[in-house]
Design brief:
The protein has 476 residues and is of the alpha/beta class. Helix content is 37%, strand content 13%. It is built from 15 helices and 14 strands. Helix 3 packs parallel to helix 5, helix 7 runs parallel beside helix 9 and helix 13 packs parallel to helix 14. The longest helix has 26 residues. The relative contact order is 0.14.
């Protein structure tokens, strides 16, 4: 690969989320969030899906977010490791409830603001640009119990106040922002995605799409505020990406795949184009959904994002005969098994070419710069007798995906940067496990919260350092 595959100034780094890394769940004035209620174990999925109300903790369950990897107390050590790898960007999120513990206060928690100012200043010390997500799967629980979370229009006001606080408090420290992480996951995992729980017999599609409308208005309003506070702010949306392939060339399968793609792209169609897509009218009609819009909503949605960010772990596969029984439960976004690709230990398809396909589709559709803000391989890591972690499987996965990204750039797609997911091991959002590891840095902690939390560089740490130093030219 030529040294010019990646443009000068391409941002290389890694990504984490507050709710999967920080811990310190009640320190510094932080309020309780949705993720703090999601246990590890058998009940986890039902809680994430909003099928089981979990408004109080149980003594017989373990909640991984409460301590996570203790990034809250160890961020200086961790950022130093990122700087050693050569990061020029670090994606993290702000825990909404650190700034507004209940979510509906009129003034923010000064201790929370001080923590994030120190965190972002630490990044800047090493010339690392923070890329900050405002809402990464953690809604303050008070907003869930008191207002019903995003099903309530009042959430737009609460989120706008929180967003303005962030843009003003961290002005000069942060210029790259994302509004909602993987916003389309609201449809697939309603409680973890948006704090939604359901009542017996209600039209869940009505609840989800009305909540989606509120999030879309809030995202557009936040984008508008960001540009008013500082015209240099760059605001992106964030999609859980990966195209659906038809399982055959049967026209019905091709149509099923197209509909599945539209289901996931619906949010980004609005955020990047500024209005509801034409196909949404039929979608809502068939699902019995009536969106309650307020005067000015359509105009507000015209505040489109500056760039489109996305995660990519795997492609997906669909057919007209898809159902609960034949779809894989490995990922929260259901998919048929693709016989033409390999899968990870957790059943996620490994498809580097799918990344190039996804990037070309998205740029053709939106004509905005792309930013790959999550990509990686969840795998079990073993420490050998010499204390080494030789994660060649992770290096191989990342190498092939970085090559695919380079091919997409050669296709003419402007790409701002790449932040691999879980650059330091953290709690897996899907399963709550620590053993499902993504990082270049190993964290000594197991699925039950035991371990020293000591950090150890893996073989991939040194490999990624070389990739960054060569601006993607040396992938050997």
């Amino acid at each position: 690969m030529s040294a010019t595959a990646f443009p000068a100034g391409f941002l290389w780094g890694g990504a984490i989320a507050a709710n999967q890394a920080e811990g310190a769940w009640r320190e510094g004035g932080k309020g309780i969030t949705t993720v703090d209620m999601i246990p590890h174990g058998a009940e986890r999925l039902a809680v994430k899906l909003g099928q089981q109300k979990r408004f109080s903790h149980r003594d017989d369950e373990f909640y991984p977010s409460h301590q996570a990897i203790d990034f809250y107390h160890r961020y200086k050590e961790d950022i130093a490791l990122m700087a050693e790898m050569g990061f020029s960007v670090f994606r993290t999120s702000i825990a909404w409830s650190r700034l507004y513990p209940n979510g509906d206060e009129l003034t923010p928690n000064a201790e929370g603001i001080a923590f994030y100012r120190d965190l972002f200043a630490e990044c800047k010390k090493y010339n690392i640009e923070p890329l900050v997500t405002l809402c990464h799967f953690d809604v303050p629980m008070h907003l869930v119990t008191e207002y019903g979370s995003w099903r309530n229009r009042k959430m737009v006001e609460f989120f706008a106040r929180y967003a303005r606080t962030c843009f003003e408090a961290f002005d000069g420290l942060v210029k790259y922002w994302l509004t909602f992480n993987e916003i389309n996951i609201l449809l697939h995992s309603p409680f973890s995605g948006a704090g939604l729980v359901f009542e017996e017999g209600e039209n869940q599609d009505q609840v989800k799409y009305q909540a989606a409308h509120h999030e879309l208005v809030a995202s557009a309003l936040a984008t508008k505020i960001a540009h008013e506070v500082n015209p240099h702010n760059q605001v992106g949306c964030m999609l859980a990406g990966g195209n659906f392939y038809p399982s055959s060339c049967k026209p019905e399968d091709v149509w099923a795949a197209l509909e599945k793609d539209r289901e996931n792209l619906f949010f980004i169609d609005v955020q990047a184009r500024g209005s509801y897509p034409a196909y949404s009218a039929r979608l809502f009609r068939e699902k019995g959904v009536e969106i309650a819009m307020e005067a000015g909503d359509a105009e507000m949605l015209k505040n489109t994002v500056d760039f489109v960010s996305f995660s990519y772990y795997a492609s997906r596969c669909a057919s007209a005969e898809m159902n609960e029984l034949n779809s894989s439960a490995a990922n929260i976004v259901k998919s048929l098994k693709n016989p033409h690709i390999q899968a990870s230990e957790w059943g996620w398809g490994i498809d580097p070419l799918g990344l190039r396909i996804t990037m070309n589709m998205m740029y053709d559709r939106y004509q905005k710069p792309l930013f790959l803000v999550e990509n990686g391989l969840g795998a079990k890591d073993d420490i050998n007798a010499q204390g080494e972690i030789n994660d060649d499987y992770r290096i191989s996965y990342l190498r092939e995906h970085i090559k695919a990204m380079a091919d997409a750039i050669a296709d003419g797609i402007p790409v701002m940067g790449y932040t691999s997911w879980g650059c330091i091991d953290l709690v897996a959002a899907s399963t709550g496990e620590m053993s499902k590891r993504y990082g270049f840095v190993y964290v000594d902690r197991d699925d039950h919260g035991q371990g020293t939390l000591a950090r150890t560089r893996k073989k991939s740490f040194w490999w990624y350092k070389k990739v960054i130093a060569s601006n993607g030219a040396d992938l050997a």
